[in-house]
Fold this protein.
Amino acid sequence: MIDMGIRIEFFDPATLGSDHRRLLGALWRKDGYLALSVPAIGSQISISSLRITPSEDWLPIVLGPALRVCDVVHQLAPRRQGEAPAWWGKLPCEPAVTVVLRAALRGSAAMLAPRMLQFAADGWALREPAEGSELLAAWRKAQRHVTEQRLLDA
């Protein structure tokens, strides 16, 4: 089994198919998904396998039944005589792989907020958000809710 990371890049729907796509941000989790092998570019990943809450609480992302793998990023781990070389430093020295999926972002911040809450609560991070986008607004709302919930639980 391979422990993979997932990155879902969200684009403005009007620009998704063009050469000048407008990235609205990406949800990323560095690990937490097991696979039998690393999916190849062009493979399909079932949206239901990315479910991030118990099935009775899951709000499906309106992206269709599957997303195509657009890129696979491999993080190699240098080994010299069985150990990380001195020049590598204290960084974790474990190999990793991240599968990159792309999707058009459709919906208002209010519609996206409950779905973003599920990602935030499961430990995902938002990367490269476009200032003023619906994705960023929904993520900020979700982050506030998760922070408040953690304070109440403490």
Summary: The helical segments are 109-121, 134-153. The beta strands are 2-11, 23-35, 44-46, 66-75, 96-104, 125-127. The mean pLDDT is 85.
